[in-house]
User: Fold these one by one.
Assistant:
Number 1:
Amino acid sequence: MTEFWLISAPGEKTCQQTWDKLMAARNNNLSTNNKFNIPDLKVGTLDVLVGLSDELAKLDSFVESVVKKVSQYMADVLEDTKDKVQENLLANGVDLVTYITRFQWDMAKYPIKQSLKNISEIIAKQVTQIDNDLKARASAYNNLKGNLHNLERKNAGSLLTRSLADIVKREDFVLDSEYLITLLVVVPKTNYIEWQKTYETLAEMVVPRSTNLLFEDQESGLFSVTLFRKAMDDFRHKARECKFTVRDFQYNEEEMKADKEEMTRLSTDKKKQFGPLVRWLKVNFSEGFIAWIHIKALRVFVESVLRYGLPVNFQAMLLQPNKKNMKKLREVLYDLYKHLDSGATGIIDVAMDIPGLNLSQQEYYPYVYYKIDCNLLDFK
């Protein structure tokens, strides 16, 4: 279970008492709890806080979407199992649960001497850059992968459609003749005998005993046959009537060599780009996730000041609910904090838009509450 509830309640005489009260009220095994440390941030004016509350809600959604995009693209690039992807989804070198439960504000990245608005703008700029870079890198890698996949698909599949370049050799053809041409014909395995009996009579001027079986797959065989050029159209037509398919193929060594070289080049380029791309995804997943949790901390701070007033006096707490007992945990929290707001009975069903109180999630409780969901991967 990787869902967390980030809540805050006003300090009793001290914030430690608020924490102790929660721990005392918690029934057995409802949740695993940790203090969530938010530093002394600059409060600013009430007007700024009200506006910032709405901006942070939008920024929260945007940053979460970018973090999910990076993690999902990591899964696409690794083309691997869920466990392998999860190993690479770390924040500051530790797993996500450890990072959240031991959260420490990054003073270097987000200096607390800056205003709340400035800090949110630093995060917005940073994550927008990650989003733009991801689009560019994903586009380049996907094009490469797509081109390679198309070439690989051409070299696989049915004899009716696949490339024949890696099957045929120069000696299979009569080349540079003014009058003769070698055709390649796909014959179903059930019709081999029929082919051997009839190919010489499908048109005039077929060279006797000129057919050879060059390659077989599960359904068909590829036969060569030599005939005069002027009989070619007639031969194609008659072959089609007998369920023999003449492939459109001209032996051209330069083209075939170019195709092989292109495939080698694309395969080499993909391998070259793979390592740096995975490293970039790991680094920027970490950066994005850290930014996202800092946004959650900002939201708790702003909402707590708006709800509980000044001076700043609240305890932020991180609860990891036991999946089976979530409803019971809500009841315990409601009983503990219902005195803070008699109107908040639980969940508001109608979307309300009150500036400064983010109710757009349609979840409003007497305590400040934000959900952090670490299930970032959508495996099909």
Note: The beta strands are 3-10, 31-35, 180-188, 212-216, 220-228, 245-247, 314-321, 368-373.
Number 2:
Amino acid sequence: LRDRNHPSIVIWSLCNEGGCEQNAWYGGVIAAQFKEAISWADTFRPVTGNTEWGVGSADTFTTVVDVAAFSYNYGAYEIWHNYHPWKPVYGGESASCVSDRAYYGPTNHTSGLVNADDQGCVRSSWESAGTNDYVAGNFAWTGFDYKGEPTPMDWPCINSHFGIIDIAGFPKDSYYWYAAWWTMKPDAIFISPRTWTNPVAPGDKLTVVVYTIAPTVELIVNGASLGNKTVDQFAYAEWDNVVYQPGQITANAYDQTGAKVQASMSIATQGTPYSLDMWIEPVGENYNHLQANGQDTALVGVLVRDLQGNALSTPNIQVSWNITGPGLIYGTGNGDPSDHTPDKCGPLSPWNAPCTRALFNGLARVVVQAGLQAGTIVLTASGPGLRTATISIPVG
């Protein structure tokens, strides 16, 4: 009851899936009792419960709740609406689409990595909701990867693959499908695979997907056009059996006339790792300035660049961090679902472990926390054979 007046609470939920007792004669009785108990504390917000089997003849539970919800049963929306056109419905759990950031090889149970080719799953999870006004929307499982539940993997994999964003806070490819269709910006475009540096072995074939809301997209590989594709609502452009050879890949998105390029993206084969680079994620208005309260944190990203300054999306190089000033390294990560490196290091580690982490497909994360004194935190990243990177964070 502590948070019952918080504006973010718009609906109360009785249960999730198995606990809903759907398709049991007593399901509606239990739902009614719990709904009455909620009404003692709050008579304004509606009540729901997320079921998993859709609408059945023995179902009494969904007829009692104010808002129906179904897990992954996208076809149930229309059936429910036909029987109960006055009641709203939404996807209580959807889009459990497994992928790992920037991994395009076959699903590998040794490394614990799954292929990032999940665009069909993402699209199908939203089409029924996005094309029917009576569906309020879907809750995607999940926004971020998390520790545990490594389906469809086993040990040594130790975290999930369901996230739109990996456990270190870096977007996976499906993130850019959501970004295109939710922002509706005509210049939004993204090529998957995100790297043209051995996403597969030279000569092997792969699928290339372009996320955009533009009506048509042209794909050009090493100067040769592979033709135009039409992008339907909530869809993407897709080319199968593209032969990989080093060079450059370009996607041009055209407007309704088919004559004007409204968005373009190119990816070139990358050079040799040369230097490290760091940046602070723009989270909040004062993301690059921490308060001296012992709690405020900055999310710092780390990557490798070649001699021409291009960000490299393939190296898995070991990086070490050193910090000075009024702050400490609160944790590190990289998004690798099978990385057993402790997230805590330095004084926050029981054994004062050094703050080192391997990049995973070109990226790693370090979380910097402010202390109680004003000053400047200086964070330095170093790696074997690479120019170091330094970033300063004011604290006050």
Note: The radius of gyration is 24 Å.
Number 3:
Amino acid sequence: VGSKIRANLTKQGYHVIGSHSGVKLCRWTKAMLRGRGGCYKHTFYGIASHQCMEATPSLACANKCTFCWRHHTNPVGTHWRWKEDDFLTIVDGAITEHCRMIKAYRGTPGVTPEKVAEGMRPRHCALSLVGEPIMYPHINELVAELHRRHISSFLVTNGQFPDAIANLRDTVTQLYVSVDASNQVDLKRIDRPLFRDAWDRLKLSLSLLKEKRQRTVYRLTIVAGFNADDIEGYARLVRLGMPDLIEVKGVTYCGDSGGGEDSLSMKNVPYHADVRAFVEELCRLLNADHIDGNVPAYGLACEHVHSCCCLMARKDLYEVSEGRWRTWIDYDKFHSLVASGEPFEAVDYAAETPSWSTWGAPEEGFDPSMERVRKVRNHHPNPPDRHQPPLVEGQ
């Protein structure tokens, strides 16, 4: 990372580690420090958001996605060509910088000393901050070091490095592949990949998920006007990898993405009802395929309305009974299984999902043990009662 890129990332709140890694505090980490709710991964998988560290060992990426939060201030490339930092240096640096940011919230209204103390002990690492984490040549050693410190791993890849996926050890807590389009034309338009064979690379990456023993996830980001119409195409892609879980999330608008005529605006941001309808149709199509014996049956498991995000899960792996699921993770059990050195499967560390986080629950995926506050939004199609006091959710 050169001085100009480092300065741009630092201005955006990133703490650059060494020559190619970074860490940043997530807004949901701040929210849970204040007792104001957790992210969708808290709702879907039971992570403690205030103990989650968002980091990457590779700020570089092979895509320049139109919806990227980072506005393309990070480097790009199709292969590793940078000075290589030791994985211990990266893990130590990420934890040090993460804790430095947590400390800054001492004394903030609503933040208790107990929450700060818990936040100083990260127990989860979302390897998805910016760039392509799986490009880092020692990703296996880095993940193993996180687990040695009892920090779970949520590794996200854009599916452009299938060889790295094939070589990934089966001890990642949860492995994601971002599926940003259902066909080659849309992928080129929305992801703007550097690889000419990006579509073939994505399909091969998805196919490799079938061989993985850890929890596997398709991560769909819905951008209205770009990739939301060809639901049948997404169903065909599900047949390739048959993932444990499918996350579908509405895009978050972060300003002009520098895509010219393909730049995003608020009109490209779907409502939760739109995402819900998409998921219901995708589930219907997949279960029609299940009847034909092509894919396992999927069900509507969870939703987090504030994040405009829904979760589908394989019924054969995670459904307990009608309306009851086991999408949460027993993190202590996971680390015990890793330490044993014996082979294990994803279902071996599954835990029951609380009722408040399930599909259609009145809590809408918000943890009832926390303070829920709302904001009156003037652009809402059905504005709430203006006589109610204005409140802010998860800020």
Note: The two ends are 31 Å apart (CA to CA).
Number 4:
Amino acid sequence: MYMDRGGSREGKKSLRKNKITINAINKGKPELKDVDATPTPCPLAPPIPRSGHAEAVIDVGVHLSNRQFDANQTKMLQRARDSGVEAIVTLCTDIEKQKPTLQAAVLSEHPLITCAVGIHPNMVSSHRISDKQVTTWVNETAVLAKNPLVVAIDCGLDFSREYGTWHMQEKAFSMQIDLATALQLPVIMHDIKATERMCEIIAAKRLEGHLQYGYCIFDFAGAPETLQTYLDLDAHIMLAGHLCDPGPLGEPGRALCAMIPENRLMIGSNAPFTTPQNIEDYYVRDARNEPSNIVRAIMSMSCACSHDAMPPTPDPALRHQGCRSGSQSARCARRPRRRRPCDDQGLLPPALCR
């Protein structure tokens, strides 16, 4: 007789053997209730010497708690330092991971890492979220935000979800703005199809004396009219790797660069997401994003602000073949779509070998 196990078929005899094996392995181990279930922070790299770059870059937006960074975080931070990144602001969309992430940053004493804490709108996405739950989360955020490594409050509105969650999102957003004022911290805001309501709350809070320590709109991707509205409200605008997308995908973001004053413009990698697509090498371009790739976004931003030609980007027609643009494309053979930990043929620069 066979039993269905998530789409596979397994005999009862095999299941019995597996159960006996697991029991033998677990024999003598303490029960789960005796085990400390508190997440143990993963120690990061030791302090890395400061780079000799003349201009420092602050990456306003790295999801360092993402599991894609668990394997080789030390090398990733070293590559960021070598690229001229002097500081990164770590964001966390899961409130349950904020405390372990902050503990790991404290234990590492890494000069590169700072943190932003808060209730991301993704957390307030259920009808079961109550006023009491939101208040509890804000109180927990207040405790974490007193740590010296915390440099901002992370919050926002996401109106792409059902109407039932909007009220709780607005309450959490408003309470965190008050918290930022009390702790004298800036605010990182996420606007997801909620521009009108967010601007209303921001305007009302500014009249009450809040947001005097600054705030920025994270990974702005709105229309020029929306951008002007935020600029009129003294907002800073943060742009990410979308600027590097070739053709019409990145053109709107590059067009907005010229509208943003230099003292209001911020940059973030949004790693491990939105890998810049103006990286020549296929394997790096198709892999996870890293803070070291922020220099590509800065190149695109600089060209857009000065109205210069964009730096060379891979030919979209050859992207699926892994070929490079220009004269190199004729000499490139079709490459397999597998990823290698390090390229023995010299296709990857040594600093980018994973």
Note: Strands lie at 2-5, 8-11, 57-62, 85-90, 113-117, 150-158, 187-192, 215-217, 236-239, 265-267.
